[in-house]
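Suppose you are handed a protein chain with no further information: no name, no annotation, nothing but its sequence. What can you learn? This example shows the usual starting point.
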Amino acid sequence: MDSESDGYTAFFQRQYPRVVAMLIAYRGFTPEIAEDAAAEAMTRLLLHWRKVSMPQAWVRTVALRHACLLKGKQQAAVLPDREIVDQRAVDDLAAVELALIAGSAVAALPPRQREVMTLTLVDMTPSEIADVLGCTPEQARGNLAHARRAVSSAIQKEAGDGPDTQRPR
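A reasonable first move is to predict its three-dimensional structure. Written in structure tokens, the prediction is:
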């Protein structure tokens, strides 16, 4: 396999279940419609893999539109007043997705920022971090501030809320 098809395969394996879950949990589609729509969106993405700059947003948009067509409506599905799924399952899915995004964002930080962020996540103070890393507390706080901004920006960008996001085509 070449690297391009490896990239699509990895994307498919990671995103297909998330797209199905999004259609069921957040939009109220039946599992059958959600699976069909996600499969159709992934197939269309494969055809346009080289051209799509934001595949996650693109595939979710195509899947939602296709699910609406399958349900017989041209507009986005509105959740009924009743609860579709257990709210804990929806919250768990969102928490897992956020953890994956945050973990990737932390891993992509420069080494010093990654060290400071990791030590902060185990409840160390900037003074304690400075002792461990051999720097001043001010340097530790500065690196932590940069790391937090970078992680926050990465999370917003991945979630589609950031200023760098574009509309999927």
